[in-house]
Amino acid sequence: MIDKIVRDMAAAMEGVKDGSTVLVGGFGAAGQPDDLIEGLIEQGATDLTIVANNAGTGRTGLARLMELGRVRKIICSFPRSVGSVVFEELYKAGKLELEIVPQGTLAERMRAAGAGIPAFFTPTAAGTKLGQGKETREFGGRPHVMELALPGDVALVEAWEADRWGNLTYRRSGRNFNPVMAMAAKLTIVQAQKIVELGAIEGERVVTPGIFVDRVLNVKRGAPWGEADAA
Amino acid sequence: MQPWSRTQMAARAAQDIPDGWYCNLGIGMPTLIADHIPGGREVVLHSENGILGMGPAPEKGREDAWLINAGKQPVTLHPGGSYFHHADSFAMIRGGHIDLCVLGAFEVAQNGDIANWATSENDTAPAVGGAMDLAAGAKRVWVMMEHTTKDGRPKLVEACSYPLTAMKAVTRIYTNLAVLDVTAEGFALRDLAPGVTLDHLRSVTAAPLHDARETAGA
């Protein structure tokens, strides 16, 4: 019998190794797996590469993981936002490596990783600072840069509903990066607001099929807290 | 001289968006355009974080923390609207499905180059977000910005001095003084704010521009 539901956070985080690349879902507070981030802080893995849209705000969650010195590198599209104080401090002190990636390229690099595509060409960033040093080729008379797939060792995902096969739905704009991250990682760990019976999520409603999911933890955290910074 | 206010600029740009277009309005000034789409036109708004058919801000007290836009402000969903993940959202942008994207900018060059993400070559951690994808991928890119910086420096230039967001991307610019097109012959003036003279406009524009108004001088 397939049962991807895990009983507690320790089981959810078991085996996350030092040096892992961890994909963290969410855009703003919506769809951000806050409890799993806390679980990762507790679990202890270090020397991590974090892939997320932002570089953390305030001093909790991702920012706390960074402040504890557990993050070697961050790959994101929007490092600086209101409240990204920990990022600023660590980056200025040279304690954090940063790779800035255009948001669509970031999503597509993970989708490619999940789909077995090692690299692709895109006009995004061609002729800009973020395209420098990348292989460039013309298609239809227009320059394109080569971007590499971005696979994760681990993905931390927030879902709305989940069943024991790991089929997932998401809530409104809480979907964002979560489905592509679920595809792109070797170990996909989900925190789901609701666990439902197998079959309760009708086939047409499944957004992430269970094949992309390894572990599901039930976390009833309610609505995310809205935040008002830019991205 | 009566430069257009931000609201008037937004209304001026909104006039030019036809019925049926799918549009992404950048954070800041371009967002205001949504409030000025002429009645009777259906313009479908896209948000990078996975929303098509985005509606206006909710009434106070009815905010939904699960429904935010790319600026992370609470929004609503228009009937017929949909949600999708980030790769699909950027496929809409990068695949040329979005009819129009309106962005803010630091500088626009006479060939349509746009700089809107980093203010210096030495800024090692600027935030790019979806700006490069939008500028390179949308069918049309318009810019909405003040004609000059706060200290009076022109933002319409021969070549951008700030790091580029995309090459040859912009086709139209709405400023507080004028509406201009980017053409093979450089900036072409389409409309002037009330009382603004062509001489004044030229004095605050750091690139040649020619008068292409249908009724020049009106």
TrEMBL record, chain A:
Q: Which GO terms describe its molecular function?
A: CoA-transferase activity
Query: What are the UniProt keywords, alphabetically?
Result: Transferase
Question: What Pfam family does this protein match (any one)?
Answer: CoA_trans
Q: NCBIfam families this protein is in?
A: pcaI_scoA_fam
Q: Which PANTHER family match?
A: ACETATE COA-TRANSFERASE SUBUNIT ALPHA (PTHR13707:SF60), KETOACID-COENZYME A TRANSFERASE (PTHR13707)
Q: Which family does it belong to?
A: Belongs to the 3-oxoacid CoA-transferase subunit A family.
Any idea what this protein is called? 3-oxoadipate CoA-transferase, alpha subunit
From TrEMBL, chain B:
The family database entries (Pfam families) matched by this protein are listed as: CoA_trans (PF01144)
**One Gene Ontology molecular-function label:** CoA-transferase activity
Keyword Transferase assigned to the entry: answer is yes
Q: Which UniProt keywords apply?
A: Transferase
Q: Which Gene3D superfamilies does this chain map to?
A: Glutaconate Coenzyme A-transferase
Q: According to its UniProt record, which protein family does this protein belong to?
A: Belongs to the 3-oxoacid CoA-transferase subunit B family.
Top-level taxonomic group: Bacteria
Q: Does the keyword DNA-binding apply?
A: no
| Entries under PROSITE patterns matching the protein | COA_TRANSF_2
Any idea what this protein is called? 3-oxoadipate CoA-transferase, beta subunit
Ranked from the top, the taxonomy reads: Bacteria, Pseudomonadati, Pseudomonadota, Alphaproteobacteria, Acetobacterales
Species the sequence originates in: Muricoccus roseus
